[in-house]
Give the backbone structure.
Amino acid sequence: MDRVVIAPYDRLWPVLFDREAARIREVLDRDLVTRIEHFGSTAVPGLAAKPIIDLLVGVRWRSLFWKNVSLVEAKQVAISQLKSLGYDYWCDNPDPQRMFFVKGLPPNGPRTHHIHIVEPDSLLWERLLFRDYLRQHPEEATRYARLKCDLARRYATDREAYTSGKAEYIESVMPAARESVKPIRT
């Protein structure tokens, strides 16, 4: 069973991200990948989290006859290359705007890493604003940790309900996160 478990912050999480990002860069085409970011709760110092490192991998735009083919190209190469690192690809992902990979997919778990491959215009990049806001506002990170612990107790065996339970809170914080990155006008 794939349980939702929240662990205290671990100082190794950024190290694990750096190691995995380097491994990913070694196997994926350099002309395809633009950047790799650590996001999610393990990217916020001091924040309790599911002990799963989330990596956001950006792929380059490449248009062919006014149709973007970046994810199409990524699917042709990334699935087999990331499989060599122990990742399973979620081919039934209902979101066609991203590719999602899991290392430690049950029953072969526990989960240790998630890779989200997206294009430059993906809304998932906004999650970096949320990450950065929590990094700059520890009181908000504490509120978020309490919510996550409560949801993990209530939905220990239902990952989707756990994730859905966080959505309203995240949306309530996003206006402040967006505002925090706006340039100051003089």
Q: What stands out?
A: The chain has five helices and seven strands. The mean pLDDT is 91. The longest helix spans residues 159-180. The longest strand covers residues 33-39.
